[in-house]
Write a structure and sequence with these properties.
By secondary structure, this protein is mainly α. The chain has a single domain, classed as Heme Oxygenase, Chain A (Up-down Bundle). The chain is globular and about 50 Å long. It binds protoporphyrin IX containing FE. Protoporphyrin IX containing FE binds next to helix 1, helix 2, helix 6, helix 7 and helix 10.
Length: 223
């Protein structure tokens, strides 16, 4: 559709700022079957061949909510003044995830407790946020932006396979998503303008960690 095409264009837009570097590092860490700019070989089964189960997907949603709750809490507390910029961007996911989990409960499913992928990642970013804002902001960027890109593709596939195509609130935003993303890119660029080259590199180097943790959470879909 036109909306999807417009959005894809926006997601690829070059901002001329630090976000372009963050995106470029992230794209290279994808496997070739995940994204066309991916450079890594596929390990294990391609995500396209995943056979999701409701139980696994619920684990993924619960752990995702745990991480988004933690991100909200960190930004609210704002140990570093730049975190305040990233509060209430409209990308927040915890409230929508709460609605989805409520719906699953009404359908008779038991909502599991968070597991180590979500718990470990939350502990990691909470600790990091207190002492290392450049590295923390890398996790903020990757977690939120990954969900709007590959996360949505996966969500659509899972919905078609096990939810009769039902679109969860997790994949809906109030307002125009491309615009919300663009606003956050501009904020990230503004904040990073004050960083030294060393601080920027330090932020970019954290991308791999974000992929590992978020990858473990994604794989819960198969648990
Ligand atoms: C972008 C797929 C996992 C971070 C993308 C894009 C695709 C994709 C196709 C490009 C979207 C566009 O056209 O602009 C996937 C798939 C994944 C996956 C299929 C797993 C099966 C991850 C993980 C992370 C991540 C684990 C890191 C936490 C990003 C980021 C972008 C991106 C930061 C850039 C988004 C933007 O510029 O708006 N992904 N991805 N992805 N992905 Fe992933």
């Amino acid at each position: 559709t036109t909306a999807v095409a417009a959005e894809e264009r926006t997601s690829k837009r070059h901002t001329g700022g630090f976000v372009d570097e963050m995106r470029s590092v992230a794209m290279k860490l994808h496997t070739k079957d995940q994204a066309k700019d991916g450079e890594k070989e596929t390990q294990g089964k391609s995500w396209r061949k995943w056979e999701p189960t409701i139980d696994g997907y619920l684990k993924f949603l619960v752990d995702s909510k745990h991480v988004y709750d933690t991100l909200d809490k960190i930004l609210d507390k704002a140990d570093f003044p730049e975190y305040a910029e990233f509060k209430s961007t409209g990308l927040e996911r915890a409230g929508n995830l709460a609605k989805d989990l409520e719906w699953f409960k009404e359908q008779g499913h038991v909502i599991p407790e968070p597991l180590s992928p979500g718990i470990d990642y939350s502990i990691y970013i909470e600790e990091l946020s207190k002492k290392d804002p450049h590295a923390f902001i890398c996790h903020f960027y990757n977690t939120y932006f990954a969900h709007t890109a590959g996360g949505r593709m996966i969500g659509r596939k899972v919905a078609a396979k096990i939810l009769n195509g039902r679109e969860l609130e997790f994949y809906k935003w109030d307002g125009d998503l491309p615009q919300l993303l663009q606003n956050v890119r501009e904020k990230l660029n503004r904040v990073a303008e004050n960083w030294t080259r060393e601080q920027k590199n330090h932020c970019l180097e954290e991308t791999e960690k974000s992929f590992e943790f978020n990858g473990d959470i994604l794989r819960l879909i198969l648990a």
